[in-house]
Amino acid sequence: PPIDMVYAESMKKVFNYLPGVMMIQRLLVFLIAEIELKAVPMTTSAAKFRQKRRARAEQYMRSTAPAKYHDLLIPGFEIGCKRRIYDSGYLKSLHSNNLTLTNERALKIVENGIETDRGFIKADVIVLANGFSTNTFLEGVTVTGREGTLNQHWNSFGGAEAYNCSAMSGFPNFFMLLGPNATTGHTSAIMAIENNVNFALRILKPVLGSPDGVVELKREAEKRYVDCIQDDLSKTVWSSGCQSWYTQSSSQNNREWNAMVYPYSQGYLWYRSLFPVWRDWKITGHTYNPVFTLWFKILLAFAGGSAVYTWLYLLRRSL
């Protein structure tokens, strides 16, 4: 079912004049969207959750679309295995008299229409809109690192990949936004982009004041991350048997490779972006030690909290 909602003018005024309300509203939307992550694992509890979501979606499709198209529209695979699409009027449009839905396979375009595997469809105008590229990144752009191009680097792993969805070893000071495995099947890609930006800025911050500063991911850290995320993706609904644009065959073996989806919570990506694993990086020419600075801030916060607690305790004793 569609999820579009219209905000009343009164609510818009609340957003405009009451500080913090819009931020709270965005947090609530994020938390509600994160609930859908429960459908991702191939577990018994997740299967029950998907069954409820499927029943709801199927009931909506049967009540909205013409009965003659139900067999074409209602899939047999697990809900979530392919990209979920929220209806914006498409199902109702199928009731139109000048529209016919078909899954006939086009064989040849001829003078007056299209020959299909089941006959002939007359056509005056043909709009070709049946494909797009997936599992590819930076299409048409050649990025060259220390030991070759980005595509060569990805082929050595078996497919497109990126540490924390944005960095690759051998490509110093290079970060991607909405790179491999950054998109999600349950929430907004905007949040993933924001996390990618925060991660890049946090890693680059130690060298921003240096003319020759370099941050570079260690190869072993990248491999460890990629092996983990691909193993976890193989245990999700995206690998449950349907043919989708999320996955492709690995260039190294017959293993299924998913370079599109992030299998964890966006809250976890936010955490990994906020607190980088500094031992996974080689940093040269830095103007300060990021690990020391982080611990200094933690100790400072702890000292401040302890001082406030001590003050409140002594104040209470004196009353």
TrEMBL record:
What SUPFAM superfamilies does the record point to? FAD/NAD(P)-binding domain (SSF51905)
Q: Where are the transmembrane segments?
A: 294-315
Q: Per its UniProt record, what InterPro entries does this chain match?
A: FAD-bind_Monooxygenase_sf, FAD/NAD-bd_sf
Could you list this entry's UniProt keywords, alphabetically sorted.
Answer: Membrane, Transmembrane, Transmembrane helix
What family name appears in the similarity comment? Belongs to the FAD-binding monooxygenase family.
Task: Kindly provide the name given to this protein in its UniProt entry.
Answer: Monooxygenase
Q: Which organism is it from?
A: Fusarium avenaceum
Question: What broad taxonomic lineage does this protein's source fall under?
Answer: Eukaryota, Fungi, Dikarya, Ascomycota, Pezizomycotina
